[in-house]
Design goal:
620 residues; four-stranded antiparallel β-sheet; 25 strands; elongated
Length: 620
């Protein structure tokens, strides 16, 4: 704890903000648990990882500040501010403006007053003054000076305006204006500019190209180049450089996406990088490079083996498992917990990967001596690092987006779920029972899914694992799962799935489902489906049975009908729709004109019921 606190206390927040924040987080964790794995991981590797991130970001900040200093230098030269130094160039915005105020000459009253006014503003005012107002106010001071000079001596004013234009052109490049150049003819002045190393710099190619074109023209073209052409060309150069810098940053993001795709383990990182590269602003791109890419490294892993779909890799320490979790009783689902893994460069090989627990920092999935896969803290040994390193390869189940994880320590052995247990297995059916070749290709294939997976409910588990019943039978989900009176229900495209403690998971297909819901469904005590919708022997009808006893029968020419109680029992004794009565054509109802008497009508008759006589059939 003392070490972590000292890191937090001593580290420079300006240069290492991420490291300082992580040290503070770990320190707070240690106040509750001095032996927390977060602390162990931070001391062994975390402090170095976070410091490396800070160094990368510090370099980016320094590059941005260098561009700010260069811009300030050009602005001061352009505004004829002399005597500035590196201290002024590197000062904060407000102090920079104060020094502009100090250094503005008497013949620059508008610039001086503008600096005075801006000094008392806020950060937005300071930024606007530096980037936009200094040059504009200096230009206005120049125009005012020329107006005064023009009133005294027009020829002198003309010459001074020409000199100022040449000086401004030099400032725009920027290049130091040699005094002798300012009195040259316009074409000779342009030729001198072309000799400077600044115009040989590819960064100023628009200025150079425009100068070359101007010299092929008339005196008016030379003058236009000096007065406006240099500034316009500089703007094109600046815009191009910004585009190139932005494109370079976007390419870095695209490179991150390509590496994430190649890893097979980082689909969230790949998706985030693709979105930012294609749709993000430049600021969003820069933020992704500085921070965002580090926030989408966590994944969970779901199995693909039939009967184990919806099961996720999980461990709270010790043996690791593939598990769906335990369905909660009072809420639809809940976080599975301890099933999220941070995908980091392999501890023993940076070209491979290690899976660090998101909830137990510094603990990784590693192979024990008996080949069982376990979650254990990093002890720093070479053996641990080797056993905690996995090399990602294509899934063996035929899905190109799935992944297998080959053990770096045991080439040919892969992370396998075997009856829910996780092993490093080879599928050769020789050494161990978990090495069997049965289902091996599916057992070692995994789907990288989002972090913090939820417990897989019993309905979802059956839907995921029995294709005939789920995707092919019910289709995709259309409404979320809910609970009423202890019975779970989830709506799908072609029907609904129900779970009860008495009967487990069953399905009701449309249109029987609508009849069940219209008849009260789960609101009626005991009205619980006891089995799946059944297809009847005639190849046309459907039925669902319910506790009660109750049933819903369906024929395409009639529709779904509800039958229950004593009438249901009598019809059942007659062999249901296979009896002479056929399919029901009505729900049970009161018999007209006879209180207490009930009746259900069928294709070829009816069944009546009274308390005194019971249920009796009548044929047409």
């Amino acid at each position: 704890m003392n070490f972590v606190f000292k890191v937090y206390d001593k580290i420079d927040a300006t240069n290492f903000p991420v490291t300082k924040a992580e040290a503070y987080r770990v320190y707070k964790v240690m106040l509750d648990n001095n032996a927390a794995p977060d602390a162990t991981a931070f001391i062994r590797t975390g402090v170095f990882d976070f410091a490396a991130r800070d160094r990368v970001e510090r370099q980016r900040r320094q590059e941005a500040w260098d561009r700010t200093v260069q811009l300030r230098r050009e602005i001061l030269i352009d505004a004829d501010i002399v005597g500035f130094d590196d201290v002024m160039l590197n000062d904060n915005d407000q102090m920079f403006i104060y020094k502009v105020y100090q250094k503005a000459r008497p013949e620059q009253p508008k610039l001086k007053q503008g600096a005075f006014d801006a000094f008392g503003g806020d950060a937005a005012v300071w930024k606007d003054f530096i980037e936009n107002k200094i040059r504009a106010l200096n230009h206005q001071d120049q125009l005012d000076y020329l107006d005064r000079l023009n009133q005294e001596n027009q020829e002198a004013a003309r010459r001074e305006a020409a000199r100022m234009a040449k000086k401004d052109a030099c400032d725009k490049v920027p290049v130091i204006a040699v005094a002798a150049w300012l009195d040259l003819a316009d074409d000779d002045f342009i030729r001198e500019l072309l000799k400077t190393p600044e115009l040989a710099d590819p960064a100023h190619r628009e200025i150079k190209n425009a100068a070359t074109v101007a010299l092929t023209g008339l005196p008016a073209d030379w003058n236009a180049y000096i007065r406006t052409g240099v500034a316009e060309a500089r703007a094109r150069d600046d815009a191009r450089i910004l585009r190139e810098r932005e494109e370079a940053d976007r390419q870095k993001v695209r490179d991150i996406k390509a590496k994430a795709d190649a890893s097979r383990l980082r689909p969230r990182l790949a998706a985030a990088a693709a979105d930012v590269a294609a749709n993000g602003t430049w600021d969003q791109v820069k933020d992704f490079l500085a921070k965002g890419q580090y926030t989408v490294l966590e994944q969970a892993f779901a199995g693909v083996t039939a009967g184990r779909r919806g099961w996720h890799v999980r461990s709270a320490g010790g043996d690791a498992w593939a598990t769906p979790g335990t369905q909660p009783s009072n809420v639809v689902t809940a976080p599975l917990g301890d099933a999220t893994w941070k995908i980091v460069p392999g501890l023993a090989d940076p070209n491979c990967f290690s899976l660090e627990s998101a909830t137990r920092v510094g603990s990784y999935l590693r192979i024990a001596p008996n080949l069982r896969v376990q979650l254990a803290g990093n002890d720093g040994t070479d053996g641990y690092k080797l056993n905690a390193t996995w090399c990602a390869k294509a899934g063996r189940d035929g899905n190109p987006t799935n992944v297998t994880l080959e053990a770096k320590a045991y080439p040919g052995r892969y992370l396998r779920q075997y009856w829910g247990e996780l092993w490093a297995a080879n599928g050769q059916s020789k050494e161990n029972n978990f090495d069997t070749d049965g289902n091996f290709a599916a057992d070692i294939s995994w789907i990288p899914v989002g972090p913090n997976p939820s417990i897989t409910t019993k309905i979802d588990e059956r839907w995921l694992n029995e294709d005939w019943w789920g995707w092919n039978g019910l289709g995709p989900q259309t409404q979320p799962e809910n609970i009423l009176n202890g019975i779970r229900y989830k709506r799908f495209q072609k029907g609904g799935a129900f779970w009860s403690a008495q009967h487990g998971v069953v399905r009701i297909l449309d249109p029987l489902l609508n009849k069940y819901l219209e008849s009260g469904g789960r609101n009626i005590p005991g009205f619980i489906p006891s089995g799946d919708t059944g297809y009847l022997p005639d190849g046309k009808g459907l039925r669902n049975l319910f506790a009660g006893p109750r049933g819903i029968w369906y024929h395409p020419d009639i529709g779904p009908k509800l039958i229950y109680g004593a009438i249901f029992d009598r019809w059942a004794a007659l062999q249901y729709e296979r009896s002479r009565l056929g399919y029901p054509t009505s729900d049970e109802m009161d018999f007209p004109g006879v209180p207490g008497k009930r009746v259900s009508y069928f294709q070829h008759g009816r069944i009546e019921h009274t308390a005194a006589e019971g249920a009796k059939e009548y044929y047409n």
